[in-house]
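2024-03-11 09:14:02 INFO worker-7 job=invfold-0412 stage=load source=structure_tokens
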């Protein structure tokens, strides 16, 4: 328990006998006691000495206790010190006035030792607790300020990293295009010349590599545009069947002979939704490309569409190897250590699709099917309003 000798009490009373009685009671409890017989003396003492409690007589010569209390409460240095009024007046007006100007309590004369000590201890304890709480709040505010500064620095650093990623993708997409266009043009010309079977295989391999890099460049550019909002796409009422059929047509054109089968199932051929046709079509193409990339030439793909609870759900199923546990931990990360689809690659496709769905205020759900293979669902609102 804290020693009471640490606590300082100022007694303000113009009657020496009262001071003596109060001083004896408090000194026996080991409180440190100071005295003043006028309001002016009390104010002078508090300028040079701090106190934990002031016992203040109301009826003082000259400046009365009410005025002294008012001045104490107006001074930031003494405003928090608890004041207990000493009064022979038990009338309600005096008591109410004392509380109104900032007094914490009152004790009537003649003094009861037990009551005096109980009220003294209570108000000193409350005062110390208020001080402790204020100090704690200050420490917490300082911690908050420090943490806020740390978060601001982290946020700034994160923005720098995000900008670096975006700039990197931008550079890659643009710098790859010119040489890739040259390679594509040369392979087209070479295919028109007389080539041996072995040379044709080399050319086909070169075409595959060039096409893969072209798609990487296009995906990188798409991500850059989506992340920086360079091109605000138009959302128009679109027929679901049209979007899915054009996506399949483009996929078949690019991947002829490189997959097993593809099937389209649409619940209602007249279903429509508000979307950006080019972005949705590209999303479906990337899903089918990933299925072929990791499922091989025998992979079977099924695209389907249905309406449910004012939502349009587009689903891509395949019978490939599905998602590894490691891949599922970071499905939409850019440049993850392992491919987010299966086991190798860049992982840009799903990141791009996630951005496209965010743009449409939709959702993407990915899972492995119980019977094997992967399932990706794209959920759109039928109307963006």
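2024-03-11 09:14:09 INFO worker-7 stage=emit residues=385
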């Amino acid at each position: 328990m804290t020693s009471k000798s640490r606590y300082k009490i100022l007694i303000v009373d113009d009657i020496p006998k009262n001071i003596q009685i109060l001083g004896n009671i408090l000194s026996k409890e080991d409180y440190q006691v100071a005295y003043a017989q006028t309001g002016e003396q009390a104010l002078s003492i508090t300028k040079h000495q701090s106190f934990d409690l002031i016992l203040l007589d109301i009826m003082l010569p000259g400046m009365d206790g009410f005025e002294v209390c008012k001045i104490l409460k107006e001074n930031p240095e003494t405003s928090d010190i608890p004041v207990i009024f000493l009064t022979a007046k038990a009338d309600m007006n005096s008591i109410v006035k004392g509380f109104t100007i900032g007094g914490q309590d009152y004790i009537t004369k003649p003094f009861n030792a037990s009551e005096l000590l109980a009220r003294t201890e209570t108000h000193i304890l409350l005062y110390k607790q208020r001080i402790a709480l204020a100090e704690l709040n200050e420490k917490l505010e300082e911690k908050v300020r420090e943490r806020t500064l740390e978060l601001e620095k982290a946020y700034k650093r994160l923005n720098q990293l995000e900008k670096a990623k975006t700039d990197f993708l931008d550079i890659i997409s643009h710098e790859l295009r010119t040489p890739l266009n040259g390679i594509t043009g040369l392979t087209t010309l070479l295919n028109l010349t007389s080539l041996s079977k072995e040379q044709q295989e080399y050319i086909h391999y070169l075409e595959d590599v060039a096409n893969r890099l072209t798609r990487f460049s296009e995906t990188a550019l798409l991500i850059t545009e989506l992340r920086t909002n360079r091109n605000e796409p138009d959302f128009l009422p679109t027929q679901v069947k049209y979007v899915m059929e054009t996506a399949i047509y483009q996929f078949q054109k690019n991947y002829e002979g490189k997959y097993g089968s593809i099937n389209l199932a649409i619940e209602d051929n007249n279903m429509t939704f508000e979307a950006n046709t080019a972005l949705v079509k590209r999303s479906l193409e990337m899903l089918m490309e990933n299925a072929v990339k990791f499922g091989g030439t025998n992979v079977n793909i099924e695209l389907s569409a249905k309406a449910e609870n004012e939502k349009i759900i587009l689903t891509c199923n395949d019978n490939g190897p599905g998602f590894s546990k490691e891949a599922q931990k970071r499905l939409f990360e850019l440049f993850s250590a392992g491919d987010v689809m299966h086991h190798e690659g860049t992982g840009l496709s799903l990141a791009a699709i996630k951005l496209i769905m965010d743009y449409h205020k939709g959702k993407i759900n990915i899972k492995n099917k119980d019977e094997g293979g992967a399932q990706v669902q794209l959920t759109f609102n039928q109307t963006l309003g």
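2024-03-11 09:14:09 INFO worker-7 stage=report msg="Residues 4-111 form a domain with the Rossmann fold fold (CATH 3.40.50.2300)."
2024-03-11 09:14:10 INFO worker-7 job finished
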